[in-house]
Amino acid sequence: MSEDDRTVARERVIESMEQSAEVYGLSRSAGRIYGVLYFSEEPRSIPELVEETGYAKSTISNVTRTLTRIGLVHRRSSEGGGRRVHYAAERELWFSLQDVFQQYVQREIQTTLRAIQRAEAQLPDDGPPEAARIEELRRTYEDFQEIVTLASEFTAAELRDALESYDR
């Protein structure tokens, strides 16, 4: 594989990370910065990230602070005790995704379930056609909630082992 092929493949993955970041409520710049750090062999400083991404220093600073807070990036001190901070990507993404499940997905599911339950309580007892659809939706969201809870409590390997041992 040529250097150009590797660069194209790397850029394709980083662009995907930009899109994924938006899905999880982060900026595209967060996805790009995470992607650059993910592929970096060594932790990078803010000036190095500015040079590689073309983003302003303030953008890099804000994004690295956010990514550090949610656990996707780790701050590293400079070797030799220098003042410059470097950043490295968390490569064990399962634990970070579990946090996202708990913070964002679980919250959305709970909000929707509350709204569905309120709607069910407002319906008359004579069973209008909407009642069956709302009940079906509630059951689906309760299943989502259970799946997210399981995904948040177990490692990927534990979930995979459980699924593989399940007899259909």
What attributes characterize this protein structure?
mainly alpha, three-stranded antiparallel sheet, 7% strand, elongated
Structure description:
It is a single chain. The chain has 168 residues and is mostly helical. Helices cover 71% and strands 7% of the residues. It contains 7 helices and 3 strands, in the order ααβααββααα. Helix 2 crosses helix 4 and helix 5 runs antiparallel to helix 6. The longest helix has 30 residues, at 93-122.
Sheet having the most strands: 3 strands, antiparallel
Bulk shape: elongated
Percent in helix: over 70%
| Strand order in the sheet with the most strands | 1-3-2
Mean pLDDT: 89
Q: Tell me the Rg in angstroms.
A: 22 Å
Helical/strand content category: mainly alpha
How many strands appear in the DSSP assignment?
3
List the secondary-structure elements in sequence, H or E.
HHEHHEEHHH
Which stretches are poorly predicted, pLDDT < 50 over at least 5 residues?
A: none
Number of helices: 7
Terminal CA distance: 42 Å
Strand content: 5-15%
